[in-house]
Amino acid sequence: MIYAILGPLIISFLIPFFYKWKHKIHTGWILLPVPFVIFLYFLQFVGSEFSPIRQSYPWIPSLNIVFDLHLDGLSLLFSLLISGIGTLVLLYSIYYLDQSEKLAHFYIYLMIFMSAMLGVVLSDNVFVLYTFWEFTSLSSFLLIGYWHHRERSRYGALKSMLITVFGGLSLLGGVILLTTTAGTASIQEMIDQKDVIINSSYFPLILVFIFLGAFTKSAQFPFHIWLPDAMEAPTPVSAYLHSATMVKAGLYLIARLSPILAGEPWFFIAVSGIGMVTLCWGSFMAVRQTDLKGILAFSTISQLGMIMTMLGFGTKAAVFAAVFHILNHATFKGSLFMVAGIVDHETGTRDIRKLGGLMTLMPVSATLALFATFSMAGVPLPLLNGFYSKELFFSSSLELSTSGAALMNTLALVMPYLAVLGSIFTFVYSMYFFSGTFRGNLQADVLPKKPHEAPWGMLISPIVLVSGVILIGLFPNMVNEPLLAKTAEAVYGEAVQKEIYFWHGFETPFYMSMAVVGLGTLLAFTQKRWARVYQVIPGKWSFNVLYDLIVSGIYRVSETVTESYMNGSLRRYIRLILLAMLIAGFGFMMTTDGFMFSNADVAPISLTEVLIAVTMAVAAFATIYTSNRIAAILILGVVGYGLSLLFVIYRAPDLALTQLIVETVTVALFLLAFYHLPELRKIDDDKKERGINVIVAGLFGLLMAAVGISAHSSKWFEPISDYFLETSKTLGGGKNVVNVILVDMRGLDTLFEITVLGIAALAIYGLIKIRRTRE
Amino acid sequence: MEILMSILAGILFATGLYNLMQKQILRIVIGTGLISHGAHLFILTMGKLKRGAPPILDEGVGNYVDPLPQALILTSIVISFGVTSFLLALSYRTYVLNKTDNMEMLRGNENDQ
């Protein structure tokens, strides 16, 4: 099984080599067997005696991350969809993409995606699942931006990336919480820990995180906005990723976790509520679109909403209907995208206002579209699979129990009505799609190309999918027993037996279907009259506007914030640093009771020292006021020489000596520099600036003085200097303890201090000598 | 005496920082000089003042001042001397290249370009 997952990934490394022969043979032909073999591999498991298979490979066992694979009915259904539709899409893309395109890029992205998607549905370890989940986001990003020279493609790719990665990161939060709560990273083991998870205090957070992940991926309201923009991808990609596989990853996640979560009130409210809103909104908005793929995108959104709603119901009938519709939707939506691609390819436009009357010119495509759209609309004809799942949807919405909390009861009561409402619009946009493209008058003059039927190679894939529609429509029990029953069992947790009949008798779901067809036909014929409603709802309001506002708002806000403190002025930065240190310093002293003023154990005060100190203080202040450069340097010298006098008084002969020499050399250096530099002058500040500077500098001085006094007043431990004094002679062989410390006991300090001086000297030399004119 | 010296160190810090926040490049160099003086005094004060003879071993002397802060300060003086002279050369170079010693005019970030 691991080869099925990693196979496409490994082969994607080889694609650049195949691509070399692209002029002889289309790269797609070489890759076509890959998904087909995987499809055949998974096909062997289909059968009524199938039982779940587990495989395990170590990856990072110490972190509880094991490459666990679990194949049950749900994974099997998805694996078959991914590999099966993958094969068809590959075949379709061979005819769709010209050999002049960058085929290697396309197929590498596609193979990575296939690998990632198989990984998502087959992993049992939540971290492995998350890894593959992000791989699907990444490869989808690359595929949407495939024609990266188009601005819209880049916009769509970025949008889908931002939204799905936002959801993906939420999912990561969710799986981490799930893992810590349940104590295991395996989904199957979590199902056994169901009670622990539900009763933990993290449960609401887990729900929110998982829902965010699933809803963003599956384009649920209000995160659906990325899907219509993802239509900038090549049509095979739209057919594969954005109708049949990736957008169902969110559904898969909800279905996979529903043995744990289903039955919880909030699970029902969130999943069914959001799903229903998505169903109605998506189908309502689909009628407004003028782009064929736009209609299909909103249609996908609404169909995903429908499946999500059924998963939220969580009853036996609903779960079965949900998995059934996953299969049905993949067949008819995949073929519709391919038909839209064919129309685009053969006429040069996807704008439904320019299209029309193609039925006689493209009879095969028209027939395919007819079956697929009617199946999508849920028209009660025995040939079409969409009808069954729609009717199951209606009946499951009627069977909802109304014995829960108040909110649940209200939701359960309105569900059937909303289901009918959404389905009416589904019917309308299905008819709109078909008749807008194939019926009516041909507008040959506005079409960029002369329309004609597509080559057979391009038609094979939609033909296969539509035969699926018809076959499942004619013999629904063919897929029921061997596959769907197993899938529903994996989702529901126990065996689900459900017979699918075309004819239920005159019961409520049948009347609901009739109402949908009747009202839908009425609305479809009068579409032009009520189209004005879109100027009111949504009017100018759309979630795209909100998204653009958020994205540009984040840029604006962060720019404002950065520019508010990063203004390039050095003094501003110094001031901010000092303020931060002041807050930290004073805050720390306050909270730890650090201020201590004791004058016990201080050295006696003598007049000389006081005089020197006062002189130094006065000189320090004078540096601020002087505007004469010679005076400034002399005043600075006064401070330095004063310091060396203090060193003398405080019994530090070496220090005094060094300080004297250094001060003299510094003064000389200053004088030398001043010779080359302009006059010192006061560059006037306004009063406010100066006031802030005085306050900041003054407070900092105060802080340092307070720290000094407090540090002196508190006793922590004895100094270690006695050791130096005792061993200076015996170990160091010198009487001058300071010098012994410098060159013997702490000789490394001295070595690097010498290095510092050397570097400074070299740098000064470089600064003065090396002259390069500015470029 | 330590309290007085702490206050003096505080004054040196305050005046040094005030100079550091001025616009003219030379005042900044002067400010760093004052700050390093303040820091040296600070270290010395922390090691307690006048508690014995200078740390040069001699017969019959029992009490010496703490030698460790003195060693630290000696290192620090040399380093701050190196840095100060480098700063001076840098300010000279800055002035020659940019024809200004006003720090408010020597500014800009990537957004300004």
Automatic annotation (TrEMBL), chain A:
Q: Give the GO terms filed under biological process for this record.
A: proton transmembrane transport; sodium ion transport
Q: Which GO terms describe its cellular component?
A: plasma membrane
Primary localization class, coarse: membrane
Q: Which residue ranges does the record assign to the MrpA C-terminal/MbhD domain?
A: 614-679
- Localization per Swiss-Prot or TrEMBL: Cell membrane; Membrane
InterPro entries documented for this protein: CPA3_Na-H_Antiporter_A, MrpA/MnhA1/PhaAB, MrpA_C/MbhD, MrpA_C/MbhE, ND/Mrp_TM, Nuo/plastoQ_OxRdtase_6_NuoJ, Proton_antipo_N
Keywords from UniProt, A to Z, are: Antiport, Cell membrane, Hydrogen ion transport, Ion transport, Membrane, Sodium, Sodium transport, Transmembrane, Transmembrane helix, Transport
Tell me the ranges covered by the NADH-Ubiquinone oxidoreductase (complex I) chain 5 N-terminal domain, including all copies.
60-107
Record domain MrpA C-terminal/MbhE: where:
690-770
Q: Which domain of life is it from?
A: Bacteria
Which GO molecular function entries does the Swiss-Prot or TrEMBL record give? Answer: antiporter activity
Query: Its topology with respect to the membrane?
Result: Multi-pass membrane protein
Q: Where are the transmembrane segments?
A: 6-21, 28-47, 76-97, 104-122, 128-148, 160-184, 196-216, 237-254, 266-287, 294-313, 319-343, 355-379, 414-435, 456-475, 508-525, 573-590, 602-624, 631-650, 656-678, 690-711, 750-768
Describe the location of the NADH:quinone oxidoreductase/Mrp antiporter transmembrane domain by residue ranges.
Answer: 123-409
Record-stated family: Belongs to the CPA3 antiporters (TC 2.A.63) subunit A family.
Please give the PANTHER family that the UniProt record associates with this protein.
Answer: NA(+)/H(+) ANTIPORTER SUBUNIT, NA(+)_H(+) ANTIPORTER SUBUNIT A
Q: What is this protein called?
A: Multisubunit sodium/proton antiporter MrpA subunit
Query: Which organism is this entry from?
Result: Melghiribacillus thermohalophilus
UniProtKB/TrEMBL annotation, chain B:
The membrane-topology field of this record reads: Multi-pass membrane protein
Subcellular location field: Cell membrane
Under InterPro entries, the record lists: CPA3_antiporter_subunitC, NUOK/Mnh_C1-like
The parts of the chain that form a coiled coil are none
Q: Name one GO cellular component term.
A: plasma membrane
Pfam name, any one: Oxidored_q2
Give the stretches traversing the membrane. Answer: 6-21, 28-47, 67-90
Q: Which domain of life is it from?
A: Bacteria
Major location category of this protein: membrane
Instruction: Alphabetically list the UniProt keywords.
Output: Cell membrane, Membrane, Transmembrane, Transmembrane helix
Family the entry assigns: Belongs to the CPA3 antiporters (TC 2.A.63) subunit C family.
| Name assigned to this protein | Multisubunit sodium/proton antiporter MrpC subunit
**Taxonomic path:** Bacteria, Bacillati, Bacillota, Bacilli, Bacillales
